[in-house]
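Regression test attached.
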Amino acid sequence: MSLKDVLASKIEAHRPRTQKLLKEHSDAKVGEVTIAQAIGGARGVRCLVTDISYLDPVEGIRFRGKTIPEVMGALPKPPGKDYPYVEGFWYYLLTGDVPTKIEVDEVVAEFKARRPVPQYVIDVLRAMPRDSHPMAMLSAAIIVMRRESKFAEAYEAGYDRMTAWESMYEDSTDILAKLPGIAAYIYRMKYRADTPIEPDMDLDMGGNFAHQMGIDPPYDDVARMYFIIHSDHESGNASAHTTHLVASTLSDAYYALSAGINALAGPLHGRANQEVLGWIQHVFEALGGKVPTEEDLKKFLWETLNSGQVIPGYGHAVLRKTDPRYAAQREYCLKYLPDDDLFKVVSSIYKVAPDILLEQGKAKNPWPNVDAHSGVIQWYYGVKEYDFYTALFGVGRAIGVLANITWDRALGYPIERPKSVTTDMLEEVAGIK
Ligand code: CMX
């Protein structure tokens, strides 16, 4: 059975569960909302549903019930490689089933067939000022491809609630197949003297991305690992939530993902990986190029906090322990680049930053998140242009959010529309008015 057929049967099996909950148990309470949550960014309010991943505050992310090491261990890998096919991970996120090698091969073939990027996308990227941020370029490339949308076409032909997920799936697959090539094009155009590399149709997604970036193995495994660990972090984070929100209006996957990428571009979200490297470079410069000691780092961390800035790569809205996505990257570094200077600096920050954040007493989570480590491996393989790092996050994040909006459509989730209240009303609730 093809991925789409397997997905269709999963959707058929799942729909009655959602319908039963809605019809027979719609009044059961999931939680309550406090004033702190209403003012404070809805932190912890349980009002979204996804089965694709779940974020436990202490354990971290599970994709379809599996931890990151379990996912890496279970999914088929290209011959001789340490990390799984991204295409097989897409299959797994969509269906919850670990695909066989044959099933993965089919998805790899399908992605290859959809890989070519339309020339007008390239033209638009080339027309943008060369100093545009890579995230602005990535977002623009996605939105300009909207004319390809099969969902939009199906909608024009007459919207059918039961089959709408199919064109959402098609759009999602089309976008995912093209996105790594688009990101690599942006990279080579902006930072490698405008020398884009043609795709290699013999390679899988991770392998071809490394090829189009112009970087030798094991960067292909780095790509596979990055795309998988950055893919999904349940539904409430800003990029996933934005994608879901926009898709909930019956917008197509192009509109929705482009918006989600814009949310990811913020310094408190995906751009934190760029900020981390910027911060470390600032420390190096201030020390005249010398590798900072733990004492130097303590001084700079306090300076950052005292100037009212956040320590990028630390803290989290949900997590309360070291992010397993940080741990996965650290494990890679211990294996492949244990003596790298930047890795040592990031490890030293890990030793001192949590205590400093605890002493400052503001952050609820003093531990590192995924972004604290993302730059190290990229830098090591020559991707030193750190404003590109969030674009790498974006390619990975697309996998999770596109799987989510395909399922949103399959289960007929309605337009999202939470209710706001006024400050007067809150004061009444608080009993001070
Ligand atoms: N450095 C300094 N202060 C921090 C901090 C950090 N790393 N993390 C949180 N705080 C502060 C908050 O700014 C807030 O201060 P105020 O009360 O003055 O507003 C206080 O601690 C409480 O915040 P919190 O409840 O612990 O954290 P939030 O849920 O509000 O925010 C996050 C979460 C990630 C935005 C925040 O920890 C942060 O700004 N971290 C640095 C940026 C970063 O790494 N972002 C990437 C997150 C992962 C991702 O999505 O990519």
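Expected vs. actual: identical. Strands lie at 53-56, 60-63.
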